[in-house]
Structures are given as structure tokens and as C-alpha cells.
Amino acid sequence: MLRTWVIVRCKTVPVVCQARLLHTSLPARSSAEEATTSTTPETQGEPKKWTPKSTRTGLIAVKRGMTSMWNDQGVKFPVTILQVADCQVTKNIKVPKPDHTVYHAVQVAAVNKPAKAVTRQMLGHFKKANISPKRYVKEFPVTSDAHLPVGTTLSAIHFVPGQYVDCVATSIGKGFQGTMKKWGFGGLAASHGVSVSHRSAGSTGQHQDPGRVFPGKKMAGHMGGNQVTVQNLAVVRVDTSLNLIYVRGAVPGVDDAPVYVRDAKKIMAQGKAYAAKGRTDKILPKGVDDLPFPAGTEELAKTLPSIIEAPAYRRSPFVPPE
Fold first, then answer.
1. Which has the closest alpha carbon to 140: 61, 63, 86, 62?
2. pTM of the complete model
3. Is 106 exposed, middle or buried (0-12, 13-18, 19+ CB in 10 A)?
């Protein structure tokens, strides 16, 4: 079993651990257990180490709803609960590009689905990966060192409390809407003489010059129902027993809809820039010393406390990304 070393200041319930190795934060095992499950990095090979140049795969989660949490100062803030349901690796992708580089990606699938409701093509794809049929399939670009064995089951501990993530989902459809609701227009004066045009868009084109409506003009039309990315959401809690991820803020979409969660691109790019300057203290957000690499697996989750929380100073809704 590949063991990933993760160091994070965490608060657990009921066990409290400070600045320990995540996979050793449980009570120490007896000597008999150590003898039966003795594994060393020398016998299995050194575990892969995350570096600022590495890009990990994302996860497919299911939005379960929203709730509220409080920090140590009593400040209330909203969180969205995402559940990682039967998320497994289905394929590793390596495609040569015209510029003589190689495109690397990991394809994952989540949420079991009855075989009778899956096409024959996808049944063959899942059978080749030796996993049960899934409802959602997504491909995440990675670096060459972040490939995973096909069939690996991913866990919510893939994301460490205190780090930031990007969430991609389909927003709630609003149908055909006017400019005031869709674009936030102020509308015309709702007074005498304006008649029933107080919610209209106003002038959309000029007279003779240029005599046309420019492309991209904000006008009435279909609102919502498209893919939206919300960036830099903080992970405030991870439940390893139920595979739940608590992220601060709102996530697009309705409940029970798929959400694609990945490491925050901007935060990781910022950490990579600091690493190039030798600022190792700013590679990851404060309180996070490392990330599970190449991924947080189901085996790693079994060695951790059931609930892991971010430090109090990372749970405040008023602390911006560093």
C-alpha cells in the first residue's frame, strides 16, 4: 500500500492533535499489531512527494446541501457539504501534443449506476477498469508524476482542511429573464411618463453610426443552466467516515448534483511562484504543510480520525487567501 505523508495542524473530535502526521494521529498500535502490519518505505519504495510543480487529480463529489458553522470567535459563516460517493480511477491518459509534449490526465468516475441504465460502450469501459458502472465520468489534467492505478478508490481526505479548492458545477436554470435580473441593470425611472418600460433595457444600438448592435451586448435571454466555476473556496472540515467535504461559501447547482472539485488553480500557481523565489513558507496556505500525493485514497482515510477540522484562524470567513 502506498503511504502518503501529510502534515497539517488539525482539530479532531474527540481527539485533538496539533502538527502531527495525519496517518499517525490515531492511538499508537501495540507491538503485536506492528509485527503483523509492519511496512517501511524501504520495503515498498519511497512514497511520492508533492511538489509545487505537481498537479493532482480532482474529485467528483455530490452536493448535499448547505449549513452553518461557527469559528472560535463565534462568527457564523455558511458552508456547503460535498460528498465523495464511490469515486474511482477509470483510466490514465497520455496523449502526445503537436508541440512535442505529452498531455497527462486521470479519468475518474463516481456514483454507482445500474448496469441496465448504462450503454454497452460504457459497460465495456468500466469492465476494463474492473469497477462497477458509474453515473458521472470526468477527466482531470495532471502532471506526469500524479497518475494513479486504475481502480483506486479516492476519499474526501484527498483535500486537506485549510487548503483552497475550485468547484465546477452546473448552475440552477432561471429560464428567460430580463436585463435587470440577468445583468443587474438599474432600469428606467419608475415615474410618470415612463409608461411600462421602467424594467426595459433601454437603448441597445446607436443611430446611423455605427447603426448596429455590437456583439456581446448584455440583453435579455436565457439565464443559468450553464457550467460555473467558483474559485478559492476554503476547506474547513473533512469527515473521513462519511466522505464529506465542508467548503466555505456557496457552490453552484441544486442538491444531489455532481460537483467537480480540484485544487485551487490560482493558489497553486501563486505557491509555485513563491517556490521559485525560495519562499517555502508560502507554497501552501498557512497551517497546511503537505498534501496527499498522488491522491488521498480510501486506505489513507482508514488510518485517520473521523473528523478533521482546519485551524481556527483558517475557518474565519474574513481571512483572505495568502
1. 61
2. 0.79
3. buried
Element (H, E) at 138: strand 134-141
Q: Say whether 149 sits in a helix, a strand or coil.
A: coil
Return d(Cα 9, Cα 79) in angstroms, integer: 20
Which pLDDT band, with edges at 50, 70 and 90, does 190 fall under? confident
Chain CA centroid to CA 38, Å? 34
Grid cell 505557491 in the structure block, residue:
271
3-state secondary structure of 110: strand
Q: Sign of dihedral through CA atoms 287, 293, 296, 301?
A: negative
Q: What is the mean pLDDT of residues 98-116?
A: 95
* Residue 119: band (very low, low, confident or very high) from pLDDT cuts 50, 70, 90: very high
The bridge status of strand 175-177 relative to strand 221-223 is antiparallel
CA dist., res. 18 & res. 130, Å (int): 40
Number of H helices, E strands in the chain: 7, 14
Of 94, 103, 105, 88, residue with least CA distance to 146: 105
Torsion-angle region of 74 (φ positive above 0: left; ψ -120 to 50: alpha; else: beta): left
| Whether the Cβ atoms of residue 289 and residue 310 lie closer than 8 Å to each other | no
Domain boundaries, the chain: 7-174+242-315
Grid cell in block for residue 151: 481502480
Q: Flag whether pLDDT at 264 surpasses 50.
A: yes
Cell triple for residue 102? 505529452
CA gap 294, 300 in Å, rounded = 12
Tens digits of residue pLDDT in 154-188 = 999 999 999 999 999 999 999 999 999 999 999 98
